[in-house]
Each structure stands twice: as structure tokens, then as C-alpha cells.
Model the fold of this input.
Amino acid sequence: MRFSDFFAPTSKDVPSDAKIASHRLMLRAGMISQTASGIYCWLPLAIRVLDKIIKIICEEQDNIGANRVLFSTVQPADLWMESGRYDDYGKEMLRIQDRKGGQFLYSPTNEEQATDIFRKYVKSYRCLPTMLYQIHWKFRDEIRPRFGVMRGREFLMKDGYSFASNCEEARQIYKKVFKAYIKTFRRMGLTPIPVQADTGPIGGNISHEFHVLAETGESTLYYDKKLLKATDDELLNTFAVADEKYDPNTSPISEDQLQISNGIEVGHIFYFGKKYSEPMSAFVLNEHGEKIYPEMGSYGIGVSRLIAGIIEAFHDNRGIMWPEPVAPFDVTILNLHTKNEDCCNISEKLYEIISRKKDVLFDDRDLSVGEKLGDADLIGIPWQIIIGQKKLSQGIIELKNRQSNKIEEMTLDAVIERFKK
Ligand code: P5A
Done:
């Protein structure tokens, strides 16, 4: 992609109402544009990151046998009356009336709809366990939307739903999703901290939140120091809680074993048994023709929040420092002198060759050196190939790594060699 064609309205102005780094940087890098409080449009740079995150999530969900679907965003209120949550959900729910006076709502979550699909199509115990998931927009009329996409009213969630024949099978699925989540977040370059959690309006008896460490995180995490070295199996049972769930009087670990850090909740999983299957009459028949109400769980990842979480974890005072697996492009080529013939020839040649294997943003814009270098650091693509007339006249091209900010001086051939795979 040539930057001259690319829609990335970057800005030097620091938005005064944006209180945390990720919000400021997403606005300045031209990733999002606010439509209304807690509601955003997503621009091309952000879409590229969203796509990478979604691909990782889907691969790990497919690995555990979950099926991707797309539920409708608008649901009939009747479904929520069946589960008994219509009134409980309160003012967070965006309620809609159609022209015939029918009551609808914009999905804040989809347990009812998943249960409805299940009861329509799954009739036999032989089809269990079943797992469905989607990546779709939600609306929650939060009292205090803030920090950009970190706490939005409209936000993108990965939400999964599982149906099992019995408690043991349900627990096995819960464990499988737990491990898949750890792997998912690690693949994005993050260090996930799973904490034992409350179930809130989703309900149930087992629940874990997944946090990523960030100084600006809204949650305070209290966890056993050995958590960071625990195996995936040990993680489930290693002491970790958030905020008011920590009570020094009942803590199972001593103070010198305790680590306290701030975190951002990027995922939340629940096991809630028959909370929806029973009231909604979702059942299958077992081998004796008896009704079995499936044991259910639901599993969320805050997809749009994750982008802000990743930026909180990876930025400096100049901009974003994307981990490679979720970066909007792999490499950016900066032609610093667009009026110099050698710079143009070499950068065009590199763009042509490296694009064969990598996603490249080629900054061919007729702007000052400072503006180009500034934008590159702001946008945070992991590798910058910098072509300037002075160095080039000595046969040198600079390669900058945006995570370490270290610059290597290289020949043209060495640069090609580096990115040819
Ligand atoms: C689990 C999947 C649920 O809704 N039902 C379906 C369950 N869980 S949750 O904890 O309420 O939300 C899941 C994740 O969504 C993110 N999230 C948000 N992101 C941005 N803005 C919001 N207002 C918001 N609310 C929730 C969080 O990452 C949460 O873990």
C-alpha cells in the first residue's frame, strides 16, 4: 500500500479529552473517529489490526472445535423475557420498537439467542458437546463510556457459547476454552493474567477474567508471584483475584508471595449450568428418550478493547510499538527524499520486492523528513526501512526496529535478504 493512497489521517495535535495513551494514540494515528459518546468509526489502520486479532482468535477457536456463526444484532425482547433477563438488564440495554410496536433490543450479549438456535436444531445427546461463537458488535448503554474504545457503548466482542451433556463435560470445555484464551492472548504478544471472578449479570458459578498488565489498567490485580511462570494447567488454580475480591484476611498466600499490578480486562468466561437451558426449554433426548437440559458456559473477548489494551502495553512517548503478530503492516519503507532520483528508484525497487512476501506501507508522500519519521513512529509498524539521500550516497539504508528503537545500517542486498521470507 502506498501511503499516498492510504487513508490514515494522522495528527500531531494531542486531543485534550483523551486521558490515556491508547485513546490519544488511536486518535492521533487516525485509527478511530468518534461518532458519539462511546461510539466510534473504525478507519483503515485499525481495521488491519482488527483483522489480525480476529484471525488469531478464530484459529484458536477452530482448534477447540468451536463453530463460527453470526447472530443478528437486533433481537426480539420475547427471548429475553423467556430467560427472565429482560427486566434485570436495566438501563444498559438499548431497547428498540419497530413500526408495528414490536419490542426489540440491540444485543448486549447473546446467551438467549445461542440457546434459541440450539433448541431449534439440536435434538439428540449425540450432538453434544456443541460450541458456537461469533465476532460481532454489541451495544451497552454504559453510564460512563470512557478511554476511547476501552469502555465503549458500541464495541466488538468475540462471544462463544457451549452446550454439554453434564457437569464434567462442561468443566472440560471450560478448561479447553481457558487454555485457548491463554494461547490466543500470548500469540498477540501479551502476558495474560487469569483471575477468579464474579459472574454479574451473565450468572453462574465459575468464572475467570483475563487481564493484560498495563499501568493505566482500571483493575488492580492481586496474584501469586509464581503465576507468571505457571504452566497452563497450574494457571487455573494459581491464586489471582481483582479489586474488591482481594481480602488480606482470607488470602491463601503470604504478603511476600503477593504481586500487585494494574490490569485491563480483555476476556471473561463463565460456567452457568442450566441458567438459560431450563427456563428456555432447550433440551435434547438421551439414549432412554429422557430430556437433558445442557450445562452451558459463555466465553467473551473484548476484541475492540484488546486494541487499546495492546497499545497500553506497547507504546512510548513517540507512538505505538505494535507486536509483529497484530501489526497493521509488517514493514514500512520511508522514502525521505521524493525529489531525489536514487532514493525514488531504490525505494520503488524495495517496495516491489518486499511486497511479494510482506505487507508493506510505502511512504511515498511528498512531506518533510520530520513529518515522515514522526508518522512512522506514531503508527508503530515494527520495521522501518529508511531511505535518505545522504546515507544512500554512501550505499547505506537504515533499518529501524520500532520495539527497541535501534537502527542498523545495511546494504540494499542485506535489506532484501532480511525480508525475503
Ligand atoms: C461472555 C460472552 C459477556 O458478555 N456473554 C457472552 C459474556 N461477558 S462480559 O464480561 O460482559 O464481556 C466480555 C468482554 O467484553 C469486553 N467488554 C467491553 N469492551 C469495550 N467496551 C465495553 N463497554 C465492554 N464491556 C465488556 C471486556 O473485555 C469483557 O471481558
